[in-house]
Amino acid sequence: MRDDSSFIELKARQRARLLLDEGSGRELLDPFDGIMSPWLPAQGIVPQADDGMVVMKGTIDGQPAVVVAIEGSFQGGSMGEVSGAKMATALELAAEDNRKGIPTRAVLCLETGGVRLQEANLGLAAIADIHAAIVDLRRYTPVIGIIAGTVGCFGGMSIAAGLCSSLIVTREARLGLNGPQVIEQEAGIAEYDSRDRPFIWSMTGGEARYRSGLADVLVPDGANAVKKAMNEAIARGVPAQHRSDEYSYYLPRLSEMNTERQADAQQVNEVYAREDRG
Question: What residues does the CoA carboxyltransferase N-terminal domain cover (predicted)?
């Protein structure tokens, strides 16, 4: 693949196949299996045969691996009962492999707005299962998260990103618990203007999240660059301490945050930035 090939422009299935060793990937529950959401047609929404979730087994650097990629162009990458179960089960099976002595790696391509509103509690339950599966699996092998763009990673799946052993982002990526339109709807445009793209990226963009220590690796939008970063993250192994366990570092900083002024990029950096980040 050319060095200048965009990773962001790839569909979920293309991303998954790219990240695995060439020719090693085989998809599980592919569109021909026809496992799709039973809830969308009743609401007048055309379902997708893979429910927007691609699960592909293969190898990475010759070792067993599973790549799970969310298709951001289907329902904004939202998580429903079927798509969530596919990701959770893939992670659970990878953990079982590791317990059986098969060192299976896991990579998650996260392009999602969070829970699918049309499936509400079913989607929330699936996301909770994903969280539990990541925490289980990361004891044995690093779970690598990748947020490239253009959807970003929001809602309950932003928590999944935070649970990953290593999180790779591009400058075009976004990461946040609530999306810009949700914040504007609840707090008003004076608090958060969802149309102000420079402001949004200065707060939740990939570079901002890297500088604040909430993402581990910042890469340019290139297929080879993303794959190289993934391989390096896997090679580093399971971290001595996961970010989600560093509450003694984060909680005091959150409590000191001045909520009387509108948050901006400078304030976020002051609260979160690590000394070893530029």
Answer: 1-188
Token digits of residue 242 = 């996961």
Instruction: Assign 256 a pLDDT band (cuts: 50, 70, 90).
Output: confident
- Pick the closest to residue 111 from 73, 144, 54 (CA basis): 73
- Start-end of H helices in 24-115: 81-99
pTM: 0.93
Question: For position 275, what pLDDT does the model report?
Answer: 58
Q: Give the pLDDT of residue 278.
A: 46
Please provide residue 115's backbone torsions phi and psi, each rounded to the nearest 5 degrees.
-65, 145
| Amino acid type, 11 | K
Between CA 212 and CA 98 the distance in angstroms is 32
- Domains of the chain by range and CATH? 12-272 (3.90.226.10)
The candidate with the shortest Cα–Cα distance to 163, out of 224, 212, 106, 93, is 106
Q: What is the DSSP letter of 22?
A: T
Average pLDDT, integer, range 99-117: 96
Q: Which amino acid is at 111?
A: E
User: What are the residues whose beta carbons fall under 8 Å from the beta carbon of 226, sequence distance 6 or more?
Assistant: 7, 19, 146, 148, 168, 170, 219
Q: How far is CA 218 from CA 108, 149, 169, in A?
A: 16, 13, 5
- Separation CA 129–CA 94 (nearest Å): 14
